[in-house]
Structure formats: structure tokens, C-alpha cells
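Continuing the series of single-chain predictions for the mutant panel. This is the parent chain; the variants come on the following pages.
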Amino acid sequence: MPRSAKGGNDTRVQGTNDSSIVSKCSITAQGYFQDEYLRLFVSKTARRSPLINRGYYIRARAVDDYLKQFLATNQDKQKQIISLGAGFDSAFFRLQSNGHLTNTTFYEVDFPDLVKRKGTIIKSNEELSKLLINGKNVESNTQNGIYLTSENYYLLGVDLTDLNLLQRSLKQLGISSEAPTFLLSECVLTYMRVSSSDALIQWAAESFPNAVFLTYEQIHPEDAFGCVMQKHFDKLNSRLKAIGTYPTTEAQLLRLKNLGWQGITAVDMNSYNTTRVSLTERMRVERLEPFDEFEEWHLQCNHYAVIAGYNGDCAEMMEYFKQGHQMISTLKTSSVSILEDSTLTPLYSQPSSTVSTKPVRRFGHASALLHLDKILVSGGFGETEGRHNRLGDFLLIDLKTKRLDEIPASPRIQELGPRMHHTLTALSQDASFLIFGGRSSPTKPTNSTVIFNLDMKSPTTAEDELDQVRSTSLASSPSCPNKSETITGVSQDGIKENTDILLDEDLSLRCPETISYTYLQVDLNDEAPNPRWRHSAIRAVRKGQECVVIFGGRSSGDVIFGDCWCFDVNVLKWKQLDITGAQPTPPHSHTACLWQDSRMVIAGGLSADLCPLNSVYVIDVESCVSQEIELTPTLSPRYSHTAHVVDDKLFLIGGINPHGAHCYTISIVNLTAATSCEYSLPVFDIDRPLMFHGHTSELLSATKILIIGGGGNCFSFGTHLNDTPILMGLPL
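Parent structure:
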């Protein structure tokens, strides 16, 4: 690499330090992690999003946990810590102030320019400099990369690819080759050439025979989240160079073993969070900020791991690392077949010079099938006018005429305003739906109950159109004089962008006919469900009357519901059902399907303690008796999936399994035989990866479903919205 090019790359990599330290400072300000020294290295603080705060919290906690265990294991010995690519990390100052660094020498190494900046901050700040024992600046010695020394802390400006200089500088400072040594590489090796990072790992194994080498790295580039993650770093010109060669924890472990480390362990952040972080601490974190990005949180944790190698006496630390861990390399998973790419058909067209394309891109929305050729989509989170926000619109997908109509929601009423994670249930009356629940934000759930009616008549002239707008109304039921309103949405050429959404081979959105809708906001009686979102709903017939049955869901804070409610469509009233028999764990983000006319199948979900569920319950809505189906083999846990029943088979589509070997799968449950099998879902396209969570799906036939939307806010990597609809064949 030319010198100038390398220098440019080094500068961009150093830029990740500045962003990272601001994020670490944010978690201390919000109470996730205690470190009073981080703020001293930040010129301007910023509050990160709750999702980013959680990601940096689990990273900081894991590294701090392992450092403290190393110090405790070698408490009475003279020991040393070498932080490789330390950046502006404040671990030394935090541990020193808390009395953890007795008999410990701490070395920090990073690029010379960055080290110069850090040394200046330390030297000019009394809070920091007083923690150094006989500290002094050594600018005269910078030819050996030594910028600051003391009896307990050394700051070295050395490029980690220059191992000769690194060895010489450490030797000059009196580094011991025999003392227990902890070498830390926190999101550093992946930015180096693989040959250089391999050489560094091997140098550490050969130079310190009694040591721990711990790295915190990104993994799993092959799935949809991994694709988004790589694109983010590519855009920053800080490409992840090691992840392609060492994409999994198994590959990372083999790397350490081949480069001289005798003992090896690894754990991803999902496993670490559920096994090493107590439930009390997890619930404390849950209450710090309003939060509703569980899928993205688990995906982020699935794509970062702590990988450690051990030599000499430090190998005894392996037992500590293994305690309580469900080690990745020994995870037991059911046999998973591959669902071929050919079973996925994109139902959108590629952009062309003559036609503008605009697939359905949103998540957290709701959808319902009118007929086999019409689908209504409501709300969610997506993009409008170049900005991401919550949506309050309606889309009508017509598979027969190859048409997508956008129906704007009323700006005047809250009931049909922007909302996410609500339910939209088709009723027996043609083009009528029940909209229930949802949220506008994690602190604003609703239990609004709306009867929504579409009127798809086509006026032939502009005057006819105006007459229809004037005359359309909804006559309220005499027994329930609730408010009603008619809303009409019209798209015209020159006002709205033409849209392509390929539903066969070539669908273009022409200027749609006038589509109006009416709605009836139901006045809730004293007996009504609590406001909630991420619940489930089905249409059923109970005691001869049409009804909509909802189950579970969540509300503000950490409230999770396990109740079941029935809405009588004829009298427009809610009634809570008293369910007896086996009681499901209260879930949210689960699914409910109708089976055999009156049986509701509840599958998966996320529990109050943030653990994904693998249960399948059947609740008879007539008798209100529940029973659990105990499956063989055990079903993989999941949430934020979709589900359909075909005959006696339950199909679970996608969803998040934090500990799964495969990111997205289809599980098939035989409800009568109590058996299950699983297929993995392909990424589909590296440029347009598919995330099978936050989506909806509609059953078009016994062998085909339509995937609509999906995606999420991918940590600090940006928001990914699937390009859909996607037609998917179901495995037989």
C-alpha cells in the first residue's frame, strides 16, 4: 500500500475512536455503566440512542468483567495489562481509582498522533494525572514511541504493524516476559490487514508464555445484518478486514489455536448477556430508557463476540470464562435444511431510466388479506420525503391488476395517526377491518379500537369523484352512536411519484382511482384491554358470533400481558376471557393463528425477562381451555416472526433467535403429530439483503406466502428497510 494511502486509512480508523468514546461517554451519562473519567476525554458529549447505548453497555461490561477477573485471579502477583489500540479508553483510570490495580503495570498502545492527543489530555488534567505514580511526559524519547511514563502507567505511540518497534519500546520500559499478562484488543484487529493482525496475535503468544489474549470483534458477515454492518464500515472507509477470513467464533478460535494459544474460549454478546449478567441487572438496564428495539439489540449482540486465548498459568481463567456460558462452539441446534434461493421471488422491479421504482419498505406495520388478490397495509416505520419516521398511511396492494395505491391517513384524528406494532384483522364483511392497539412511541401505547372500511368504487369523471367525496358517509349504529369520518385519498400524475412494485414481471403504479375509507372509533366500555402493542389478533367465531381475539402484548416500562380478550363485532364490546389449563408465559412479539375454526395457536414470543420462547399453545376460544403442545424435536425459540396454519401444519416465518446458529429460519410444526422441522432462509441478495423480522406475511395458497416489509434500525449502522413484496414458496 502506498504510504499516503496507508496514512489515510490510519486516520479514518483513528476516527472510529472519537465516535466510540462519545458513545461510551453516553452510557455513563445515562446510568448504564459507571466511569467518571470518560467525560474527560470528550470535548463535546452527545446522547446516543437507547439501542446504541445498550450496545456499548454490554461491550464495556464484558471487557470490564474479564479485566477484573484477571486481576482477582492473580491478586498477589506482579502483573501487567497491555491495551492494544487503546484509543481514549479510560480503563486504567477507572480501575486505578477503585483500587483494582495493586501490583499492576498498565501499558496503552495506539497510533502516535492519537497517543499525542491523549497524553496532552492526561498531562493537563489534574483528575487524571494524580492517578499516575510519578508520572512524566517523555517527549524526548518519542523515537521509540514512548510518550508518557510513570511507575504504573505507560503510553506508547506505536503502529501495531511495527512489531519490532513495539517489542523494543516495551523492553525499554521493563516489560516482563514471565509475569501474568492480559493483552486486550477491543475492536482493533479487524481494521488491520489479516497478515498483520495474525502476526500480532502470534507475537503475543511467543512473547508472553503466561498470558491471556482477549479480543472483542465483529462476526457473521454472511447474513442480512452482517451485510448492513459491512456496508457501514465500507462507507466510512474503515473496512472490516478480518471478518471475511474469520467470520465465525469457531474460525476465530481456530485462528488463536493455530497462532500459538493453548486454551481458547469464545462467547457472543447474547450468550454473555443472558448467562453472566444477572436478571436484576438486565431489568435495571431495561428501565433506564424507553426501549422497543429488541430485535436490533439481539442482532447486534449476535454479531459481536469476545474471543480469548490462554497460555501458561493464565489458562486457569478458562474455567471462569466457561462458568455459566453456553459456549458457542457447543451450542446444540436442531437439524436445519436450506431453503433454496429460488423459492424467493422479488415482486419489485429494478430502477430503470423510464420507470421510477418504490418498493414497500417499512417495518412494525400491519397487513391483512382482503381477497387472494388484495392486501391492505397499515402504518409502521418507514421513509417519507427522505426522512425515517412512524407512518400513518395505508397501502392497498392489488396483485391482480399489478397496482399499489397509497391512501393517506387523516391528519385530523389520533385514531388513524402514525402507529407501530398494532394489529389489522380482516372481518367477514367485505373490505372491513378491526384496527387495535399499537403505539406512537414506547411511552404512548393505545387501546383504540377502530372499525375501518374501504370503498373502492371507481368514479369515471372528476365531477363523479367530487360527488363521491361529498356523499360518502358512515351511518353509525343506533346502539352505538360513535363518531365517524370519511377520508379520501387521490394520487395524481405530477403530484406523486410514479411507483413500481413488481408483482409479476412488470407492475407500474398508474394514477390510481379514487379510494375512500370510512372508520368507526369504538367507544370503549369499562371492560376493555389495557393499551398495548406487539400483541396478536385473530378473527374467529365464538358462540355463533363473529369476534376478534387478542392475546398478550407489552405496554410502557416492562409490563408484559398474558391476558386474552374477545371483541364482539356485532355489539362492539370487549370481554376478557378466563383461560384455564396450561398457562402460556406472558409474551409479546409472538404470533396467533386460527386452527380448526375455534382454536387459537400461540407460538414463540419474548418474555418479560427478555428470553425468546419456543412454546406452542392451543387455546380453544369456545371453551377457553389452553394446552401446550410438547414438540419433538424442541422448537427453536423465536420472536418477531409471522405464522400461518395450512391444514394441520403451523409455519413460523423468520423472527429472531438470539442463540440460533442460523439467523432466520422457517419452522414447520405438525400440530397433530407434535413434531417440528426447520429450514434456513437465504440472505437473497448482498445488495438488497432480507431481514425476516418486523415484517408481515400473507398466505396466498397452500404453498405460497407474500412477505411485506421488514428490517430495523441496525445499531449505529443505519436503518435497513427490505425491498418488498417478496413471494416465497413454502417447503412441503
